[in-house]
Amino acid sequence: MFFGIMGVVGAVMLGWLARDPMEIAGLVGFCLLGALFPDVDTDSKGQNLFYSLMILVDAGMIYLKMYVWAAWLGLFAMLPAIGHHRGWTHTWWAMLVVPLPIVLVPVLFMGVREPEPFVRFYLAFLLGYFSHLMLDGEFT
To answer: What is the DSSP string of 84-96?
Structure first.
């Protein structure tokens, strides 16, 4: 979380990020989700938050009759359960791959032509993920 807040403060001070409170809150939230994600493979606060969020999003998709998307989300939400603690969720490649849908879904499936805002959210998630792995000693 510290990395996320400092990253946002630095980006605002350098003029890389507008001072939009909603976007800043979203970026800090994505950083927090990224920091919690590596521990979704074990009983943790990260797991509880992750699956609570997935249930809400999946229920929303079902309500909107987006059944195919709800099925895909349900499938991908189960993937952390097939590994063991500090397994694939604690790797550098997972840190890069897990948040890719933040950019790829809008660009490939929703026709977004300007991915820059989504790239910022990808980087926020990535920063949180990196901080978790770094604090766990995965890069030593």
So the answer is: -TTSGGGSHHHHH
How far is C-alpha 132 from the geometric centre of its chain's CA atoms?
A: 13
Report the distance separating Cα 44 and Cα 36, nearest Å.
Answer: 9
Where residue 44 falls (left for φ over 0; alpha for ψ -120 to 50; beta otherwise) is beta
* Mean pLDDT value across residues 82-104: 86
pLDDT digits (tens, 9 = 90+) for 37-74: 888 878 877 788 888 888 888 898 899 998 888 888 88
CB 98 within 8 A of CB 37: yes
Q: Distance between CA 54 and CA 73 in Å, rounded?
A: 8
Phi-psi region of 137 (alpha: psi -120 to 50; beta: other; left: phi over 0): left
CA-nearest of 81, 101, 100, 93 to 41 is: 81
> CA 121, 84, 71 angle in degrees (round to 5)?
55
Query: Which residue, chain included where needed, has tokens 């980006």?
Result: 11
